[in-house]
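hi!! sorry for the late reply, been swamped w classes. u asked for the two structures so here they r. pasted raw, havent cleaned anything up. first the sequence of the first protein and right below it the tokens
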Amino acid sequence: MQRGWPGNAFWHSCKTTFRKIMSCTIPMFRRLWLYFPRRTHALTYRLLLQVGNKMYGRTLDWVQRVPFGLYIKHGPGKFVPRGEGPALKLVEQYTKVVAPRLIDLLTTESKTYLVMTRIPGIPLQEAIQSFSYAERSQLAADIRGCVSQFRQIPNPNDAAICSADGGPTFDYRLEDPAGPFDSEEAFNKHVIFRKSLRSAIHDHRHKIFFSHADFSPTNILVERGKLSGIVDFGCAGFYPEYWEYAKGIYGHFGLETAWPGSLSDAFSGLYKDELAAEKLLWENGNSF
């Protein structure tokens, strides 16, 4: 399955072992870092952002790779959703999904800094066309396993549908921020902007689960033909069970079938009616 993928297998194994060792030190480092003053944190992050920009260049205005195997998401609140830090904490506490580990969440008068660990790999969108059918099948199985773990995360909040910290959802599909919502029916009233677009499936009561809510080939990382991690939990929160699949499909249907096909396999072909209802809403203008 890995035939044709570049890189030395021994070196890859060494890097994997090193990453595992480093991940074990994260809790200790976080505890030690908390003893330093907030001002020291802010000054350190500004310095790291400058160094990271010179070393790695800038991909996005609000996300920067920096030294020591870290990334910093920074800027006003709209660039650093309030629920992203709590979401990362929940994922670390309740799952074994490979995702960024939260180092610090610091809010100053003008800016928020979300400091997290870097996940190895490249975005799936850069590699999926090179995947064999066997690799795509394994990718779907691995994503299915991640979703299963996400669904084991308990909702610690009073609201049913909300961000990870119980506040409004941050989701471009919902013209954020939206909610929080006490029920799926309240959620549907927000989503369905015209009665004629209500589908029969909207009368079905779905279970509410923790969801990444932004599955996209840009947020799924792969390495040597395998899933290596999931990043960008800015939209994460508690949503109806179909939301993870429907959001992952949005913008990726049409002639290109590799990603929609893999995601459908990951969800075992479920939620076709829900996807059809969502497409009807998207096509009539209620989309991000």
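now the second protein. again sequence first, tokens right under
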Amino acid sequence: MSRLVPFDNISGSHNKALECRPDDYRSWYLRGNSLRMLGRYTEAIASYDKAIERFSDDYRAWYQRGNALDNLGRFCEAIASYNKALQLRPNDYWAWYQKGQAYRSLGQYREAIASYDAAIKSCANDFWAWYRRGDALRELGDDQEAIASYDRAIQSRPTDYWSWYWRGYSLQRLGKYRAALGSYNTAIRYKPDDYWAWYRRGDAMRYLGWDRDAIASYDKALDIDPKAASAWYGKACCYARLGRVNRGMESLEEAIALAPNRYQELAKTNPDFERLRQDERFQEFYNY
């Protein structure tokens, strides 16, 4: 049982009620909500426990107790609380959704998907369960099904940047680079100042062999985050394939300076750098 704090350490009319009636369920529940809003999650759980001692069959205290446990990263305990809430209200969308979130935080993606599916049965058109279902499927490597979930999320929120971005990412992993570009372009329309869609757009163009266009996209990404080693590396690949050795070496040097452990080894064997390997700077760098 979590430790309770004195009444006078928290503002709220429920404290006065508890001073007069310490067995009042509603006041303990509201006190828990106030503590949770303040970020005092352990103390909130103690209040929810007190509420549950007085009225164990109320959905709300079990559900909010699960949320406070989730806030603390105590995901298995949170799931147990959500299960209690669902025994009392089996079709509750948010308890199923939050249970899915807890499973996803544990890396238990199949269990998360089952919970999101149950949430969707309760509220078929809500954005969040479809979107997070897509995330869990993508994390399992099931990109085709992830795309279908992101499509349903986009039906609810057509302008959501991250749904379009992750849809593009899943398409790209399937080798569908032109389709991925369409999703990245839409994402950029809704959030033009985010690094990731510009960077992934550059990657998709590079995989298609559109090196000049890819460089322009990487440049946009680097305008937003000049220290993004991955974008510098992508530019180096493109410049090398175009035979622009000086620009290729400059970009590669930037990438290695920012992330030496990753890109120094990759550059040794990357076939894109065949022309760079004839350059004295490349040979000196690797002691050829």
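hope this helps!! also noticed smth abt the second:
The longest helix spans residues 41-54.
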